[in-house]
Amino acid sequence: MKRIFFFISLISIVSCTDQGNIISGPNNLFTGSLELAKTYGGTKNDVGQSVIATSDGGFAVLGYTQSMDGDITDKLDESFDFWLLKFDANTHLTWSKTYGGSDDDRGKSLIQTADGGFAILGYTASSDGDVTSNNGFRDFWLIKTDASGNLSWQKTFGFSGADEGISIIETKDNHFLIIGVLDVTASGGLGNAGRNSSRHAGGDYWAIKVTQNGDLTWSRYFGGSFTDIPNGVIETSNNEFIIAGSSDSNDVDISGNKGTYDFWLVKTAASGNLVWEKSFGGMEIDEARGIAPTSDGNYVVVGDTRSSDQDVSLNNGAADLWLFKMSDSGNLIWNRSIGGSGFDVPRSVKSTSDNGFIIAGSSRSSDGLVANNQGQNDAWIVKVDSNGQLVWERSVGGSEIDFAYDAVELLNGSIIAVGESSSSNGDLLENKGFTDLLIIKLN
């Protein structure tokens, strides 16, 4: 196991009064103004993928790092490792920890567990170091730590192909549900314990429920003959699960493809059995990136769309952030498109304390509903109300490529977004390597 370390990182901090596009008017005290942007990393590639608010008022970030210098001091090679960082409420780094072996290991999703520790999910191609077994090219890799990031246990799930863990939740019965992509072709149809269905090809949604100790409870896969990629999952009030992602299949489990890639929503029972599946979108490429519950018992789904027909009421140009509200039975209630003439894409959605939603992604626009762009892709944070109407939006970046992959509201009302940056100008004063892990704080 790799050692934990404490330090105050040399970081770049920038303050800004530019508040982006504020729709809600002067009575809104929170405008999404940029308080600071920080970069962490070394001379190689370092990326933030997931951020959560923690019970102490701070936050934790999961991503991956290739560096073994700069802010990373517990790595011995330049392979990719999971990277977990813990911050206090004032955005001060309190500890940082890497996990992995000698091959490619990348963290994707993070939760704080009921015992105050953390559960982290991604994939591993290693079979040494912290990884005790690997069944193939890539496996789901699930790690449980204590509150200080010390590794409690770790488990891999997979077969001979490329199986990649993407999202994790802690269930109401204190188990874990993990989802990702199963290479069904390579598994030979394995991975579908307890469900009767015909074997098919391609990559499928793979849902696995495990106990607090990582022991398998059940596993199911869902999909068709082409590419099916899940990105988010939630547990409903009656202990069922809804998985959101995208699919370009039109067979086996997918009954209503609308054209190329669609948002594809799957609802399962608590046992993992399929309850319903629904496709949403138009004739072009539409890909769901996340799902969050609403305060009235429904759900908001976000992703990007290139369509302007069927379920998509409006497209502002190229790709738009598309969000819709649906009922528990999968019926569309409303849909909204946010963006400009360029490519504007979300990567996550989370509920906020005012019953609205915070969305993280990237934007290449500087028109329409996007006020600013500083060059190529900017990290993009969007706040919408409970009806999906834009409250404010904020682009953060420089002249190079900058992405936000996740954002969360802290207990004090601030917004933290995480991603990656290659810029060293504009809002970002320092770049330490190829890409740096990016942290943004908005007030």
Characterise this structure.
With 443 residues, the protein is mainly β. It has one helix and 29 strands. The chain has one helix at 184-187, and strands at residues 21-22, 34-40, 46-53, 59-65, 81-87, 93-99, 105-112, 118-124, 139-145, 151-157, 164-170, 176-183, 203-210, 216-222, 228-235, 241-247, 262-268, 274-280, 286-293, 299-305, 320-326, 332-338, 344-351, 357-363, 378-384, 390-396, 402-409, 415-421, 436-442. The chain has a five-stranded antiparallel β-sheet with strand order 1-26-25-24-23, with no helix packed on it. Strands 2-29-28-27 form a four-stranded antiparallel β-sheet, with no helix packed on it. Strands 3-4-5-6 form a four-stranded antiparallel β-sheet, with no helix packed on it. Mean pLDDT is 93; it is low at 1-19 and 24-28.
